[in-house]
Amino acid sequence: MISKKLLILLAILFGMSITVQAQIVNEDEKYVDEEDEIVVIDQSGNEEIIDFPEAMTYDLDSLLNEYMSKTYLSSTDCNMRNENPSYPEEVFIERLSRMPTVMEMAHNSVVQQFIDRYCTRLRGTISYVLGASNFYMPIFEEALETYQIPLELKYLPVIESALNPKAVSRVGATGLWQFMLATGKQYNLQINSLVDERRDPIKASYAAAHLLSDLYKVFGDWNLVIAAYNCGPGNVSKAIQRSGGSKDYWHIYPYLPRETRGYVPAFIAANYMMTYYSLHNICPMTSRLPAQTDTVMVTKKIHLEQIAKVLNIDIEMLRALNPMYRHDIIPGNTEPYALRLPQADINRYIENEDAICNYRASELLTNRIQVEVNDYTPTYYHKSKRSYKKGRKGRYAKAHRGGNKNAKVRKSSKKRRR
Questions:
Q1: Among 13, 42, 169, 201, which is least packed, fewest CB within 10 Å?
Q2: Rg of the chain over CA atoms, in angstroms?
């Protein structure tokens, strides 16, 4: 069999366009990796296709183009070799068993497949996530701790959104925790044309912790909880019923939707990688935490560009700190909304609020409050029927001789004075 490295070398030398499929073989099963899915072929030759988490297929360049990434993340000079060491299966089993988790982190061939993908093809993404985690993990941990949720669930957004607060899935799930619109509203996240709190890291994290707590009350097992988080509690309940009543994720596995069959293995593998990345020669991107921030309540309708220009602040930074405002508009005239700013700029905003509100308001906030109606009614000519209609007030429409004989004459509503 021609090796993967040899195929790539041939492609470079001869300009060939080829598709390389990484194959991992063990005693029991053979796996063939595709770009966005994993195909498992058992000894009997039966295929099982498992969807790969959508967030882990995001283009790394796009993730690095976000403001927080461009400003506070950078590549590090790593002394490690950029290659993945090979370990026997027993090593992975032992490492997973040593992780300090409440959740069951079991090893099997499917989990191993996801680990192999993370530490080979997705090494760059894991490096990015490790760096970006410094921004978001304290927020996740505080929210989970409030609802007494196992802290290992802080890695759920890794496979949900690759830690991108503006991520939107193919089906419309949005934010770090990938809330669907209906679920977001159910957990008191405000979503309208101007505001989407699914994109707010703090509010969405508390909503996600609340949702996870509610799901645990239903299923009593954390693996089933995150399966239900992915495909909905109804689908998990159906899988339990079809399996004969089992509440073991790995027993109901064949009865779950295709995308959910890979969700728990992907989550376990993410926990493994975030813990043991250095043993696979993966270096986290170097991160510098942004300056301390605070919030001020806005009670007027304001555009972020007004704030940026008057306070001389980078508007991209404002958007990164306030991702919930979909069109850069804070509708503070509807209800008070929080604006997050660097702590040093809070007092400057308060002192200059009137100047901010007045700056180019007519250009940036174009929706008019009151408009005049043009009450002039023009004359319409219908050339095809050689008829005309006058729309002047108090007049009637006159039909031409060749027009509609049944046309009724509309009398003026005003009575003549005798």
A1: 13
A2: 30
